[in-house]
């Protein structure tokens, strides 16, 4: 092999090595670029997820703030077992905390309790409380809310139709009627 041929072979080897090194640097550079790009995307995704979680938490706080109170959260109504021992008529509400109709009825119930506090006792019975399971069976409670006027003095129970539970005025008509009849009974006895 002549010197010229050796020089050409060396140059080909160097050029090949040089090109291989350049190729490796390009591949490594692209890998690093992709790594940085992926990390930036992951950071952006993490930031978006964090923002979504904060928005969801804020939304839940607002919904909870806007949610009406459950019937058990109202400070109206005596325990049924205590109220029944008194000789006064009572309006007894059978409710479930998850019941939408019960939740909507509670402001009416609360207003009625204020209006009739001298004439009646107001009692609440949570139908899901194991303490009241026998009472729920005794009254044959099947829907909510169920409202009875219970008069222990005369051993009397009057079921109020759910159709009258929509307003204070409608329920008041029924309570006034009951109180009128009770006064008539009291005069006779």
List keywords for this structure.
five-stranded mixed sheet, 189 residues, rod-shaped, Glutaredoxin, alpha/beta, single chain, 2 domains, 5 helices
Protein architecture, described:
With 189 residues, the chain is of the alpha/beta class. It folds into two domains: 1-67; 71-188, 3-Layer(aba) Sandwich (Glutaredoxin). 59% of the residues lie in helices and 13% in strands. The chain is built from five helices and five strands. It has helices spanning 3-66, 80-83, 100-115, 133-138, 168-188; strands at 78-79, 90-95, 121-126, 146-151, 156-160. Strands 1-3-2-4-5 form a five-stranded mixed beta sheet. Strand 2 (90-95), helix 3 (100-115) and strand 3 (121-126) form a beta-alpha-beta unit. The protein is rod-shaped. The N and C termini lie far apart (140 Å). The relative contact order is 0.10. The model has no long low-confidence stretch (mean pLDDT 85).
Strands side by side in the biggest sheet: 1-3-2-4-5
Radius of gyration: 39 Å
Could you give the distance between the termini? 140 Å
The fourth-level CATH homologous superfamily of the largest domain is Glutaredoxin
Strand content: 5-15%
Topology as a string of helices (H) and strands (E): HEHEHEHEEH
Shape: rod-shaped
Q: Provide the structure class.
A: alpha/beta
Structurally, how many domains make up the residues?
2
Number of helices: 5
* Uncertain stretches of 5 or more adjacent residues: none
Mean residue pLDDT: 85
- CATH hierarchy class name of the largest domain: Alpha Beta
**The CATH architecture of the largest domain:** 3-Layer(aba) Sandwich
CATH fold topology of the largest domain: Glutaredoxin
Percent helix, as a range, is: 55-70%
Total beta-strand segments:
5
Largest sheet descriptor: 5 strands, mixed
């Amino acid at each position: 092999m002549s010197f010229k041929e050796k020089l050409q072979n060396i140059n080909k080897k160097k050029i090949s090595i040089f090109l291989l090194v350049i190729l490796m640097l390009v591949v490594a550079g692209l890998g690093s670029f992709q790594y940085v790009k992926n990390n930036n995307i992951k950071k952006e995704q993490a930031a978006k997820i964090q923002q979504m979680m904060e928005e969801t938490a804020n939304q839940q706080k607002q919904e909870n703030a806007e949610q009406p109170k459950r019937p058990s959260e109202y400070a109206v109504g005596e325990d049924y077992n205590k109220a029944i021992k008194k000789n006064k008529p009572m309006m007894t509400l059978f409710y479930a905390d998850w019941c939408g109709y019960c939740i909507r009825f509670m402001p009416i119930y609360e207003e009625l309790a204020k209006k009739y506090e001298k004439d009646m006792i107001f009692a609440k019975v949570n139908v899901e409380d194991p303490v009241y399971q026998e009472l729920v069976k005794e009254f044959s409670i099947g829907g909510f809310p169920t409202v009875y006027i219970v008069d222990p003095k005369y051993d009397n129970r009057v079921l109020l139709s759910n159709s009258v539970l929509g307003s204070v005025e409608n329920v008041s008509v029924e309570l006034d009627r009951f109180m009128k009849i009770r006064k008539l009974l009291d005069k006779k006895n």
